[in-house]
Amino acid sequence: MRELVTLTIDGKEVRVQPGITIYWAAKAAGVDIPHLCYGEDIHPISSCRLCVVEVEGMKNLAASCTYPVSKGMVVHTASERVMKARRMNLELILSDHEITCITCEKSGSCLLEKYAYQFGISESVFTGEHRERNEFPILEENPFLVRDYNKCILCGRCVSACAELQFDSAIDYAERGFKAHISTAFGRPLQDTTCEFCGRCISVCPVGALTEKERVRKGREWEFQVTSTICPYCGCGCTLEMHTKDGKLIKVTTPAKGTVSRGNLCVKGKFGTYYINHAERLTMPLIRKPGPVKGTPTGKGTSGAGAAKGGEFVEASWDEALDLIAKSLREIKEKHGPNAIGGLSSAKCTNEENYVFQKFMRAVVGTNNVDHCARLCHSSTVAGLAKAFGSGAMTNAIGELRYADCIFVTGSNTTEAHPIIGLEVKAAVKKHGATLIVADPREIDLAGVAALHLRQRSGTDVALFNGMMQVILSEGLEDGEFIEKRTEDFEKFKSVVMQYTPEKVEKITGVPKEKIIQAARLYARAERASIIYSMGITQHTTGTDNVLSLANLAMVTGNVGKRSTGVNPLRGQNNVQGACDLGALPNVYPGYQQVANPQLQEKFEKAWEASLSPVPGLTVVEMLHGAEDGSIRGMYVMGENPFLSDPNVNRVKKDLEALEFLVVQDIFLSETARYADVVLPAASFAEKDGTFTNTERRVQLLRKVLDPPGRAKADWQILSEVAGRLGYSMRYNSSANIMEEIASLTPIYGGMTHDRLQGFGLQWPCPDKEHPGTPFLHKGMFSRGKGLFSAVEYIPPAEEPDREYPLLLTTGRILYHFHTGTMSRRVDGLHAIRPDGFVEIHPDDAAALKLSDGELARLTSRRGTVTAKTVVTERSRPGTVFMTFHYREAAANILTNDALDPVAKIPEFKVCAVKVEKAAGGKGKAGKAEKIRA
Ligand code: SF4
User: Fold this and answer.
1) Which residue of 216, 443, 633, 696 pairs with 340 in a disulfide if CB–CB is 3.0 to 4.6 A?
2) Is pLDDT of 390 > 90?
3) pLDDT above 90 covers what percent of the chain?
4) DSSP readout, 412-463?
């Protein structure tokens, strides 16, 4: 521990850490020094000179943002000399700043306005040469920001934030003297630069030069109500401050401290939640009145919209809709038994709602047929990590990543799918010197900052990891003590792994053996090595094997149970972790308590006062396929869209058509909802309270920002009302009340209450009310006792390219859209940036197919055909094409294979064989999906 430094600030003795600046020492002493160019977390440049202070013994005033403290220093922060200098500096800045506070959007939170007011300056005494009025055009060329550099004071905060916090350099200073301004390279429109529209530049701008476009003319800063809640998109769990006025969302910000995202947001969190104001929100219950199919449904989500099964939707009262649901479910149950009904819960809904949903299916309907989209993204994680470690969740915390010595990212396009975690990885590399290894068939963004990029063939991950472990064991780089004391089944595992020589693995994976050896050494020699993975690993018929193999890699090097190490699956949706935790799975009650265990069955029967089935239920894909043979007759879908999210869409369509009764509860009339008999309007994330659990097991509080539109209600309230009509009283009066019940039955959530979750939330396990939560798992002992090695052999994908279908299709996400696009595609700005579906093709393949950039391509697999716009790029490997699944008109899941991992039942979204041809129609928008009607 270094000795503290004692100094005097404004007559007060202060003891602070050596090396900090006077600014921070003053802050510690409760003295706030004015500043314009300095922003916390960015490098100080001392250009505004507003933070100057007087240091006894120094001739000149010192800029407190850069000047370090020293022993015995005597500082005056508000002496006459200091105030005079500040006043002059302020007047100099104001001499070149148009004072337009009357109309400026920033008025009320502008720092220049604040300091001018404090100093009583209404105009500058400097009347000499200055910038022309409206020297710069107001830039509104992009969908998200307005840039008015006439108001800019050239503090440089936006330039520093872009470079140092976002690790981008989309903007910089341009020109000199009175022409000096901030610009993109060559003044290009922002969307033609590397800018990702994170909006951090707006949040650090101290004046009104940068403004959210949606916010313009919507009100004064002091008129907005600000409510803190959690982002509804990915599993990072960023905090959103929602600024609202008159029942509408105006803008979104995030606090700089005390959150997962440390003041950053991605474009979806910053600009992508306006869908809650969208005119297509469901506002009334809808009942399908049978009739002929009238062609493509209107998609309006209102009365009169055509239903995909024929007839049209008409508005109904809640009583009519709920009575019909209760009657239909009761009839199916009486005729075919409770297991003829299936339910899809939702990773978009709160923990409390997922708890109530699975309880509804189990205690009210009487079946364990409950599942959700985790089946399609991380069920292999849950199965694999539970087997190896005893817990199927991310082992470590997001904030630990930047202190890892080595990070191995595989099957995760982190900067696009989990942007805030992507920033943590970049911070680890660029600020803390970590070594990054990326194993991904695509040239993803992180490959650009990696020490090593391994481009394995899709579906050969087990071979690659086995190859790395073969090198580790051959070169004696394993952690023998860890293996000996903390693991079991090592010898069996070793005997398999040793067969995977780098030469053999090179043949399987296409990765040069030298790179395999180098990766093994870099990972194994690091003091703290962390693995990050996502759906590139899990969505395979060997998904569970892939996860087990990564668990082996961490254990063989002793990289589990310590800070900044571990095996870290990044969960896709905002609350997919919570939906799993709360038992929206067919084999477990909340807290991963097995339904087949008689003691646990008794525990829940007693608590819920209901008779429960000990037989695990069906998974998502099994339920839908069950409609084909009549084993499933009715389904209740809450906030999921299997029509687009499940593989082999044409089969899903037939399954949905075959159901006798389908109820869908959602915020929009999704593609799945069009097949429903009853559609119920639900509240969005911003219209209810409750909790979400992010990917690092952090349970965070969601707060109600606005009232739901029309007659929409929170999902848990709807479910309680249906349960009541089926003769079961749920008796909840708030989501906090539901959390009390969850805590009483779920040991990992045992210490959680809504009161305790204020602030930064708690990471489970949190077994009791005094427990502080658990940042990293398996310290000293694995959840299952000893870590279990598994001997995992490489098995090829279920479908590989052949003569008829010669290319390999892999799928993934892009930054600007999310999942099936239900939310993100209803945000004008996101849509404007990425309006069309596309297929990425390597230049060699494009040349062979005579396809050029922007042309329409037709892709065909054994399951269907789609057309999409061609993007010719080296991001894809030769022989591999890439599509996203966000676009219904170019739905990749028409093509994907519904072959399942035998353990986790996850489909093989990441590999299937396709043929690609030039489509009729030449250049233009992405084409229509053929053979589906939705
Ligand atoms: Fe939301 Fe994820 Fe973006 Fe954070 S990183 S703002 S949680 S979408």
Assistant:
1) 633
2) yes
3) 80
4) --HHHHSHHHHHHHHHHHHTT--EEEEE-SS--GGGGG-SEEE-PPTT-HHH
Query: Which protein residue has the closest C-alpha to ligand 1 atom 4?
Result: 238
- Per-residue pLDDT tens over the stretch 478-504: 999 999 999 999 999 999 999 999 999
CA distances from 321 to 301, 327, 728, 730 (A): 16, 10, 18, 19
The pLDDT tens digits for 158-214 are 999 999 999 998 999 998 887 888 998 888 999 999 999 999 999 999 999 999 999
Confidence at 934, pLDDT banded by 50, 70, 90:
very low
Where do runs of H (alpha helix) occur along 360-398?
374-377, 379-388
Whether residue 106 has its Cβ less than 6 Å from ligand 1 = no
- AA letter at 449: V
Cβ count within 10 A of residue 439 = 28
- Look-up: residue for tokens 């986790």? 904
Question: 342 near 620, Cβ under 8 Å?
Answer: no
Closest by alpha carbon to 94, among 111, 109, 77? Answer: 111
Rounded Cα distance between 558 and 239, Å, is: 34
236 Cβ below 6 A of ligand 1 = yes
CA angle (445 as vertex; 440, 448 as ends), nearest 5: 90
CA angle 619, 893, 341 (to 5 degrees): 30
Q: What is the DSSP string of 509-564?
A: H---HHHHHHHHHHHHH-SSEEEEE-HHHHSSTTHHHHHHHHHHHHHHTT-SSSTT
Distance 258 CA to ligand 1 centre (A): 16
pTM, full prediction: 0.92
Best residue for ligand 1 mutational test, from 203, 229, 234, 415 (most atoms within 8 Å of Cβ)? 234
**Concatenated DSSP letters for 575-605?**
THHHHHHTT-BTTEETTTEETT-HHHHHHHH
* Tokens 């996101």 sit on residue: 830
- 237 CA → ligand 1 middle, Å: 6
Distance CA 228, CA 242 (A): 6
Q: Which residues of 730-739 are buried (b: 16+ CB within 10 A; e: fewer)?
A: bebeebbebb
Asked whether 861 and 928 are in contact (CB, 8 A), the reply is no
